[in-house]
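fwd from M.: "can u put these together and see what the complex looks like"

so here's what she sent:
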Amino acid sequence: MLKFLIRRISVMIFTALVLTFVVFFLTNLPPNLEKLARSEGSVRMTDDAVASWIVENGHGGPLLGRYAEWLGLAPGWTLTDEKGVTRGRCIDVYAEAGSAPTFCGILQGNWGISTFAKEPVGDVLGRSLGATGWLMFWVMMVMVPASLVIGILSGMREGARTDRVLSVFSIASTATPEYVSGVILLAVFASVNAGLSPLLRDWGLLSDRTLFYGTATSAMDKITFWNFALPVMTIALYGIGYISRMTRASMTEVMTQQYIRTARLKGVRFRDVVLRHALRNALIAPFTVIMLQFPWLLNGVVITELLFNYKGFGWTLVQAAGNNDIDLLLGCSVVAVLVVLITQLISDIGYVFLNPRIRLA
Amino acid sequence: MTDTPWDPSMPILEIDQLSISFFTRMREIPAVMDFSCKVMPGEAMGLVGESGCGKSTVALGVMRDLGKNGRITGGSIRFKGRELTTMTEEQLRQLRGSEIAMIYQEPMASLNPAMKIGAQLIEVPMIHQGMGRAEAMALARQIVEDVRLPDPDRILQAFPHQLSGGQQQRIVIAMALMSKPALLILDEPTTALDVTVEAGIVDLVKDLGRKYGTSMLFISHNLGLILDVCDRLCVMYSGEAVETGNVAQVFDKMRHPYTQALFRSIPLPTAHKTSRPLVAIPGNFPLPHERPNGCNFGPRCDYFAEGRCDQADVRMSALPEDDRHASRCLRWSEIDWDAPLAKVVTKEKAAIGEVVLKMEDLKKYYSVSSGSFGGGDEKVVKANETLTFEARAGETLAIVGESGCGKSTFAKVLMGLETATSGSIRLFDENVQSTPIQQRNTDTVSSVQMVFQNPFDTLNPSMTVGRQIIRALEIFKQGSSDAERHARMLELMDLVKLPRAFADRMPRQLSGGQKQRVGIARAFAGGAKVVVADEPVSALDVSVQAAVTDLLMDIQRENGTTLLFISHDLSIVRYLSDRVMVMYLGHVVEMGTTDQVFQPPYHPYTEALLSAVPIADTRVIRKRIVLEGDIPSAMNPPPGCPFQTRCRWKDQVPNGLCDREMPPVRQLQGAHQIKCHLSDEILAGMEPVIKLAGE
């Protein structure tokens, strides 16, 4: 087990390095840097001035060297200009030239400074990840139990009426992307003059303007059912359809296995056949899917957070990309890579506990 | 039908005119028609027939587990006087597992892979007797001991995949016995197991049946097994029982043409390939929706009488002089059952020519890593150890052994699918041992061909039969034009006795036996000189086996082909081979002519193997030698003689030689060789395992 973990973690680190390098390379392409120079310096800079700005602000030199600096494996750049003021990667952060450390990359915990938020990237990421964490948590709390129950109920008797009704629901929900379901949910539940809210108001059942809040900004301070239900449902609906289809497929397959017949002909009650004999075997496949769903959620998070104006990770990512905020974008990609790799590790380890036939070296 | 009170003098199970159909969107498919049988307390009833005859459907019908499409359309099933066909789900549930238990064909698939053995066993008494967990566990431990499994505590804590096939089947049996059922249904319980393991399971089932007084419904396609286990049997054909009676009557005084044809098509010790060849049943099994009018067996029957047998459905008629012996034949009283086989075609023996294949000291080792993600210790699996033999033109050399003995590895090395680790293979004086198949020239490839075990998987499902044979001809560079190859393909269809019209059919439209014929045609497309037949008939029904075997022999006789016949079935090996090579864990333990190998002196393993094979002949007296334990893993073979862990003669060898030293190859009379430490005197004193009564 330990050996397996070490091997998996080293592969993870390697993958993370490769992926961040790709992002680093793309964000540091010359046109991007010129754009950065003009937005940070002056829009009317000459081409020569842009070139020297790039060099003076540590964006010159070989790409690999700058990547190593960013990682914290190479000493941060320093530059003493003609006025005798020493600036540098590390000095900017710690403000004092003399006491600044030589290395200051992400390994030292220095993620750089966001040009958009005018704050250290670490702070921005921490805050937005916290917000997204809550969103994810509630999505999972809704999505996983709901989809497993739906999948198992429809898979235990293939072709029965329950199966057909639930299948229609899950196919419909998985065929509706977040930007559609989000808009529909907003229109039905959170619009002043459409959907349920005007009706409820007419009947005197609703004193507020809308049933649910149309934005989740207030949830940054305090999460309530009314400001959080819609974004959570927007993301969860898609996943529910997807995971319940997987669970159903796996369940119907397990129900035709011979050991299920063995259990049935032992006289086990149908309920116990499902719960004791089929469930564990049927969960093996969806478990991986659920874990794969985490990185997939990041996708939905981007759309949903923009739609509901919730300043989480997805919102930050969009802002960073839109504002050419290199350090923040790099930070976001590191986080995304880690989320994907860690959930995959957890899924592999969890698999071993569900499936006794698999033994890790 | 009302429930009647039951006492032990009445039948445990009484099936009366049962009909079962499966309903598809297209039509109703009758699977079982007018089936009646009675099982008395303590009696073992055999159900025998070919695949598709409805014997498993009867078993599932008794369990009332026919799935969504299956329905009982008529008749009654009474268990201890209670009508099963009208029971509610809840009543059935209380019966299943406690009063009627079932043992299945594939033990691995029948056990829940994610539950420990113990948990699966204790469920039964916990559901049916309301037993506590600890008490149930104690009972499980005792039953696991009863089914003669070593180290029951470890086994109860194990998962199914950690046990061998034989052990798994013992667990399935233990599970069936947990609440001492009155009726045990065994559906081909040993088909997936090796013969020596099968012998152990059969012994166990018989002993336990006696010990607990359980009645049994034993389903098998193997008449020999039925003779071993059952008191009475019922022969089924195409959804109907055609003959029923006690074992001795049906085996010796059969009164239905199908039963007779079945016995004539299986290789009994009295059959011989030249003097008394097998008689295959002509034609094919009718599909359920294409059954003929009148007698279902009519079109294939030697005694068919037009105007009588093809009119109305034939009823079961009791034979007056015998005890509960009945036959579904209109003409049973008219046929002279003792008449000798009418059309015995004695055949010339093929002339044995010069040596075409010579192997010397062939070794094939695999190295495997123990870790499942790679890495770990490297281990060497010795799949073949010092194989030395030669095969001549026109000769049939049988290679016999159980799973894992290295017989398939040997075939792969010969074919060039693997290269040998060391040693030499000379094929027509050409060294081929280290030439993989990609580098062999077309001549070599087309002259060594293979007939595979499973005809269902080895034909391309989306190509017509004729096209597949033409493809082989193209690869072997036969014929100069498409027209020529097409003509040659039709000749090949004639050779394997398939109608020429079949060339345009898809493989799925063919029966198993017909597919295997296509496989044979393909193997002979390039004029093969050496054909490796890897269990060519083991996936086929007995009546078809005879026909395919005969076909192989005929082609061999005409072309002087060398046939390397790989099999685990000693009956068929005795019938068709000239020489036999017995393998165990990669070693050739015995080799000689068929007579030498099947007569004493034996290698102890050959002796056990011979005694394990069930023979469907009441006159045969067999010495029972049941091997203990399982075949050791080739990853971790025992030191010294590979067979020493299961050998019953081991204590006859002084100084524990078997534990330490690999026995040398010894030459006995003729070319008979044997790998054993036993002294000449002991070998000479061995008794034959199989004797015919009155000999």
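replying to her w this: Residues 75 and 102 of chain A are 5 Å apart (CA to CA).
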